[in-house]
Amino acid sequence: MMTSEQGERGRGRLAGHAPYVIVLIGVLGGLFASWQNFRSGAYIMAASMLCGAACRAFLPEERLGFLVTRKRVTDITVMASLGLGLAFFAWTARGG
């Protein structure tokens, strides 16, 4: 039988991965959208990466789950660079 303390710890562990899941769903959604329209899919992926960088910058490490892989500055720099790079790539791409 599970005590209430164990249930709270289990929910806390799952809730800690919510920002990671949001970023992952955004990137996968962007990949799916890029089949129909490359530019909109790239913008969705860029927004998702920038959201991940913002989460890493402002949320405590206990609530970030797998978004914490390196030092805070490195994680923010990498995700923001990828997001801005994707946005720039979508903006300059021909066609759509």
TrEMBL record:
Keywords: Membrane, Transmembrane, Transmembrane helix. The chain crosses the membrane at residues 12-35, 73-93. The keyword Transmembrane helix applies. It comes from the Bacteria. This is DUF3017 family protein.
